[in-house]
# Entry
Amino acid sequence: MLMPSIFGEHVFDDFMDGFPFGSYRNDSAFNTLMKTDIRDTDQGYELDIEMPGFKKEDIKAELKDGYLTIQAQTSSDRDEKDDKGRYIRRERYSGSCQRRFFVGKEVTQEDIKAKFDNGILRLTVPKKEALPKTEENRYIAIEG
# Structure
């Protein structure tokens, strides 16, 4: 059952938390941001990340130590004034979010292709085989 919400705070929080099955809601705001679909293709992986309300300039993608990190940050101000310059309504929003995916240490920045269109960031990450580690013999010098 959905409960009313006033300014982001749920009216029945204290009452509902006493139930033995836990809370009636999922608190995570990130359930609505950066939902990701990952497709496995013959050539690699395709990630479609939903980023509604963000512009291309708001988004950064970084590859470091085999982890692909997608970050987005935005802010907006909406001021409405009457004819005398008094505020009728002021709304501000500022937010950021990020996701990390392990893509492998063999993948380089040049391998990953990204495109942002209609609020969806599409990333193409190729599959690369991990190079087999060569076994190194490390001997300890014996004096005497």
In short: The beta strands are 5-6, 9-10, 36-40, 44-50, 59-64, 67-81, 87-102, 113-117, 120-126. Helices lie at 13-16.
